[in-house]
Design the sequence.
């Protein structure tokens, strides 16, 4: 599972960075979205995810990180998802407006010569 | 509210008030601005001005409270640190909040001269921006710092786009760059936070300061990676060399009051660098890179200022130059350079705000153009010329104003350090370049241009009041340099004595519950 998680984070980051460098606002937005997915998975991974750990404190099981999952990274991810989603929506609105005003979806608002 | 009640409120809830006040004001303004009735909408400027000036008074009271040297920690949600989010008010935080409020009052008064009405929700966005700024200056938790960064950025995206008509296309283009760049920066911020949490299990700054020195050897490198990633993110905000290219376009495109408010935004990055290097990671984490990059930033900002073709572009490069000077002070990291840097920070923020307003007035008097070419200047040159002169003296660091004192203090403190000669040469050369650039701009605008009678069509007393107010503050800074440099010296000393901050945050005890629900339930027999 760890390998799968690592590979997904790496692939998403690589794709996100590549798209971000493509100087078209639509590609850049997709790239930022992929990047935010990668970041969310990464934050999730910092809680050392394990299979079959208790999700919440249970009577009879000692309340340590050896027995339960760490809830804080999940809370961090939740916050990060909300923020990234809102910011991406805002960027999309700005990019659409820029496209309408300038007639180009290049990030410099003009086609390269 | 009478005196004792106010004192108790400040002593118990002081650090959270500068966040709550703009939040409530912003929420109220959002409702008022969307109201259908004209009678309600008329209240908008009054509510906004009252809230901003109340923030200024509050910030002054908090500064008085913090000047005693005690760090006041505040537990949000009454959870003890490091489990809940903590806020902390120390000398540096109080100074930054007061500076924010002062710049905000100036920008708001100027905006009331017409700019605020040119678009929707200016006042609400303005208050939310203040909330994000104050929160970033007061929080003692790194993830909370991220959240407040996002709050202030989200508001700044809206403010940057504010205004109809002239420059809209330019603003949109700048906004696409600005938002994209900052979103990528936010991703890096989160990665750094994830790494830090992964190796230490905490994001509370005081707790991190505790845990980082005792990390197992295998995790030290990871923590260093996280520290440098964080510094990269803060360098984006503070406009350090390879990462400042977004700033000139963005700041030159923003409307004047927004540009004036943005003068404090680069200082958020500087503040965050100062906070994490002194409190969390120790200055040595960035020592070799930071001062060199800051020197290079200074040099390129000087070139940018000399090459600027528009007055607003020139002003934007002045902001970059001041950020370079401040990061240089932070990178050198001795108590003397930090104190000098903080003193210079006050001056450079106020004077940058003044420049954005002044550039707008000059552009308006020249028929809307701020190109540095001879153009007829309307309305006489005496007053704008005098303002230009004062602002130029203050920003270039020429005696007798506070810009000179800040730079002199910095050179004095940096002289004995190993990098001393380079610092002295870099700061003096950049001051000279800025002076030449401003002299050239001033002679084109005021001497080579014909004078015509007509004043700017949109002139309003609010514009003159705001500009006079901020220039008076710049002059007062020079007059009160003694007490102010004593304060910044004490603030720098407090930054380097980090144990006080750590003890205050980790030692803060939750307030006893006024109402013990559990006990009551036990007595009633509801709970097991």
Sequence:
């Amino acid at each position: 599972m760890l390998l799968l998680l690592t590979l997904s984070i790496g692939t998403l980051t690589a794709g996100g960075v590549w798209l971000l460098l493509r100087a078209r606002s639509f590609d850049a937005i997709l790239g930022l979205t992929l990047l935010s997915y990668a970041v969310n998975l990464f934050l999730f991974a910092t809680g050392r995810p394990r299979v079959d750990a208790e999700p919440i404190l249970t009577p009879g099981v000692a309340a340590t990180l050896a027995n339960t999952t760490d809830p804080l990274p999940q809370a961090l991810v939740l916050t990060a998802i909300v923020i990234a989603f809102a910011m991406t929506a805002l960027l999309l609105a700005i990019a659409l407006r820029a496209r309408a005003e300038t007639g180009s979806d290049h990030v410099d608002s003009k086609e390269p010569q | 509210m009478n005196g004792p009640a106010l004192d108790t409120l400040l002593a118990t809830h002081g650090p959270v008030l500068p966040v709550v006040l703009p939040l409530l004001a912003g929420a109220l303004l959002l409702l008022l601005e969307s109201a259908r009735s004209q009678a309600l909408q008329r209240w908008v400027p009054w509510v906004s001005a009252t809230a901003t000036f109340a923030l200024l008074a509050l910030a002054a009271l908090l500064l008085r409270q913090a000047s005693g040297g005690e760090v006041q920690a505040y537990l949000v949600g009454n959870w003890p640190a490091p489990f809940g989010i903590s806020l902390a008010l120390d000398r540096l935080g109080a100074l930054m909040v007061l500076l924010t409020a002062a710049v905000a009052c100036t920008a708001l008064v100027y905006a009331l001269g017409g700019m605020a009405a040119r678009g929707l929700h200016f006042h609400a966005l303005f208050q939310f921006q203040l909330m994000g700024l104050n929160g970033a200056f007061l929080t003692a938790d790194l993830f909370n710092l991220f959240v407040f960064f996002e709050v202030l950025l989200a508001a700044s995206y809206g403010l940057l786009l504010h205004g109809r008509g002239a420059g809209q296309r330019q603003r949109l283009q700048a906004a696409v760059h600005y938002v994209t760049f900052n979103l990528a920066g936010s991703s890096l911020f989160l990665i750094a936070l994830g790494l830090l949490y992964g190796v230490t299990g905490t994001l509370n700054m005081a707790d991190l300061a505790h845990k980082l020195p005792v990390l197992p050897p295998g995790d030290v490198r990871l923590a260093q990676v996280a520290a440098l990633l964080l510094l990269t993110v803060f360098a984006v905000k503070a406009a350090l060399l390879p990462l400042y290219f977004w700033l000139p376009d963005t700041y030159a495109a923003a409307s004047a009051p927004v540009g004036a408010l943005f003068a404090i935004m680069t200082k958020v990055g500087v503040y965050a660098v100062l906070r994490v290097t002194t409190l969390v990671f120790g200055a040595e984490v960035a020592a070799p890179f930071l001062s060199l990059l800051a020197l290079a930033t200074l040099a390129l900002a000087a070139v940018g200022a000399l090459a600027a073709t528009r007055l607003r572009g020139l002003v934007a490069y002045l902001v970059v130059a001041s950020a370079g000077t401040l990061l240089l002070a932070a990178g050198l990291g001795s108590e003397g350079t930090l104190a000098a840097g903080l003193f210079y920070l006050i001056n450079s923020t106020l004077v940058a705000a003044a420049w954005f307003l002044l550039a707008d007035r000059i552009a308006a008097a020249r028929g809307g153009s701020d190109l540095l070419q001879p153009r007829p200047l309307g309305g006489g040159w005496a007053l704008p010329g005098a303002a230009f002169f004062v602002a130029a003296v203050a920003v270039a660091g020429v005696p007798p104003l506070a810009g000179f004192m800040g730079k002199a203090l910095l050179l004095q403190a940096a002289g004995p350090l190993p990098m001393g000669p380079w610092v002295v040469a870099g700061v003096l050369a950049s001051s000279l370049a800025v002076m030449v650039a401003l002299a050239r701009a001033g002679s084109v605008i005021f001497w080579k241009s014909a004078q015509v009678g007509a004043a700017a069509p949109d002139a309003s007393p609010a514009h003159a009041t705001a500009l006079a107010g901020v220039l008076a503050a710049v002059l007062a800074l020079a007059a009160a340099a003694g007490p102010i440099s004593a304060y910044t010296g004490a603030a720098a000393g407090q930054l380097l004595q980090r144990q006080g901050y750590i003890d205050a945050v980790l030692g803060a005890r939750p307030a006893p519950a006024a109402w013990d629900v559990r006990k009551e339930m036990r007595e009633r027999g509801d709970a097991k």
Notes: Chain A touches chain B through 34 residues (CB under 8 Å). Helices of chain A lie at 2-20, 25-45, 71-102.
